[in-house]
């Protein structure tokens, strides 16, 4: 028995892989080793069979208009000042650990919280507020703002006794 798959088996495997999600996925290209793109399959594609073992195809993707620095995907501890190394604003994901009432302020714009039980995960881009168990926690917010990190120097402050970590999501225009 041969270990070589037929072109039909390969086509099925590729199609299943590409259409396994209906949401944005990370796309990495060798041309940009320090970045990734957020991409989604735009529509179907045709595979042109060249012989029994190979074929050619083009996959149409929708792309966010930004490429994201891989280095901006690592969670870091927040500090009183944080420098965004890109020319574009960033929408971080904050993980706040603490209980009770408090706030997180970015560049003078505050997010207030009440009745927090252990902590929150706040995704600025998606404008979601979840507890540490992944359950919606919008009722803990006392403000309606989701402040971004501007290009360059940013100032941050938060309630004493709380800790803040963030995934910065640094990005640049494609």
Mean pLDDT: 91
Radius of gyration: 21 Å
**Anisotropy-based shape:** elongated
**Helicity range of the residues?**
under 10%
How far do the termini sit from each other?
A: 47 Å
Let me know the number of strands: 15
Q: Tell me about the biggest sheet?
A: 5 strands, antiparallel
- What proportion strand? 35-45%
Helix/strand order, N-terminal first: HEEEEEEEEEEEEEEE
User: How are the strands ordered across the major sheet?
Assistant: 6-14-8-11-12
What report would you give on this structure?
The chain contains 1 helix and 15 strands, in the order H-E-E-E-E-E-E-E-E-E-E-E-E-E-E-E. The chain is mainly β and 174 residues long. A 5-stranded antiparallel beta sheet has the order 6-14-8-11-12, with no helix packed on it. A hairpin with a 4-residue loop joins strand 11 and strand 12 (128-131). The longest helix is centred in the first third of the chain and has 12 residues, at 7-18. It is elongated, with a radius of gyration of 21 Å. The termini are far apart. The mean pLDDT is 91.
What's the helix and strand layout?
Blueprint: H1 7-18, E1 25-27, E2 35-41, E3 47-51, E4 54-57, E5 61-69, E6 76-77, E7 81-84, E8 93-97, E9 100-106, E10 109-116, E11 119-123, E12 128-131, E13 152-158, E14 163-167, E15 171-173
Antiparallel strand pairs: 1-2, 2-5, 3-4, 5-15, 6-14, 7-13, 8-11, 8-14, 9-10, 9-13, 11-12
Short description:
The chain is 7% helix and 45% strand. It is built from 1 helix and 15 strands; from the N terminus they run H-E-E-E-E-E-E-E-E-E-E-E-E-E-E-E. It is elongated.
